[in-house]
Fold:
Amino acid sequence: MTETTPYDADRARFTRQALARLVLCDHAVDVADGAAGLVATGNDPDTGPGGRVSQAFQLIELAERALVSAVVYERERGSSWTEIAQYLGIGPAEAEARFAANLEGWNSAFEVPYRLDDSGRKRIPQLPTAAYDPAWACGRLDTWARNRLVLVNDERPVSSGLVMTVPEEELPSGTP
Structure:
């Protein structure tokens, strides 16, 4: 299924590197928000036995998703498997094998942006939401960062650092 998507023109302003970075930012927010849920103690009586273990275990799953996004981003920005593998404590071939399916999924989502659901009538986007609708993601992530990162003094702390296909000075004012 290769029809155009409602967000193609918007997405075209972003490089694949920028889209991958947005996905990583989105997944990092999930990890941060998940970890924040473990900080306050006031609701501990409302949590059943083992509940905090469940929350901590979910952080591992969220962190794994962020790691996959970080690898995709690093590959998009030109990092070699050797450079990536050194931080994973494994060899380059092992790193490439571990993340090959994730990279294939990322690459194929640009070629085939949708798949049909089981009914054959509804189109399901193949890109992660932050890459599929990057303008929405920029707004949400910029707001999250402004509200949570107290030492950051930037009106657009996420979107201002993205590598765009169109130079920022050519964009209409108010766009990420």
